[in-house]
Amino acid sequence: MSTLAQDAVTEAPAGAREQLLQTASDIMREGDIVDISLSELSLRSGLNSALVKYYFGNKAGLMKALLDRDMAGIIQAVDALLAKDWDPEARLRHHIGKVVDTYYQTPYLNRLLMRLVRESDPDEAHRIADSYLTPLSRAYDKLIKDGVKQGVFRDVDPQMFYFTTTGACDRFFSSRLVLKHCYDTEALTEELRDRYREHCIDFIMAGILA
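-> structure tokens emitted (210 positions)
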């Protein structure tokens, strides 16, 4: 490690690693992008960019760590939902609302996930898929089949439903240019999030309820 890097590590405050991740998340959310510059990251976080190499190896490692941070919370929340003794309709309504909240908070997430799967080596791509995509697919399979078994849901394809729900919830918050040029706003406000959450729940549930 160079002397400069050693000094950066020595002077780094507690929580510097998480601070870098959160700053990267903020930059991508505010800019509606899936990339960052290390100079902006350093400026916004107040931390030496040498810490990126120390904690993550490089910028690509930072992006992977950010994906892991954000996706791990989603998987844990879905597992907790499946463990609840709720009826299928209540489970699914709750889940759709949380998907909207997730993309409001991290609108870059699905684009970052696809980018890393596409650009990573095969082993890393498989790790991402096995860690996050496969568990979500299985969760949707259970959510739908439980509802069909109880006569609450129509017998729809869980895979197609996963893409429908994810696409609807993600697309809105990753389309800031459409909001700007067609609706004279590009601010992702809490009021807008709440309106879209209610719309998505009502619209999607209307298509699956028996």
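The two ends are 62 Å apart (CA to CA).
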